[in-house]
Design brief:
Layout: H1 19-29, E1 36-40, H2 46-52, E2 57-62, H3 65-77, E3 84-88, H4 91-95, E4 101-106, H5 113-123, E5 124-134, H6 137-149, E6 155-167, E7 170-185
Parallel strand pairs: 1-2, 1-4, 2-3, 4-5
Antiparallel strand pairs: 5-7, 6-7
Helix pairs in contact: 1-2, 5-6
Amino acid sequence: MLEDKDFFKSCDVPGPTKEAIRAILLYKSEVTSDDKVVDCGCGTGGITCEFAQRAHEVISIDTNPEAIEITNKNLDKFGLGDNVTLINDNGSNALKDIDDIDIAIVGGSGRELENILDIVHDKLNSKGRILITAILVDTKVEAINKLKDLGYNPKIMEVNISNGRVLDRGILMISENPIAIISAKKR
């Protein structure tokens, strides 16, 4: 696993997704070296970098040109990227040209989550997996309802990672990146 502290970051671009969350996403995705992965809303590229080490192909999408730039810098820093395509566009547009997806990870959706999930559903292969990371309660509900409408049996996991800091009078636990991970497999 790549360490959080090693990533290039920006105040204007979310991420990277915390290391413990990335580990759970890798586990839940069941990624293999044959998989084609789409990272929709890649931010600074934390998820992209982890999957680039394990999947056959990764396609990362973000509407923010600075996100694409920082993701590219992180890929270079870690010696990754030979199997990564970066697309500066919104998810709905970019996904239309991508077929036979094994794993779709949706982080940022720019208020287009339902449309993105419709397209992903059509583009997933028969054993495809969807992972959605959500912070807002509304996004969690929207994702679950849409996946159910599409015939999936979604699972949701609320994750709250806390790291400790030793003080002179005790240990202070600080919550980082509270997030829900919603997962579903094509049936």
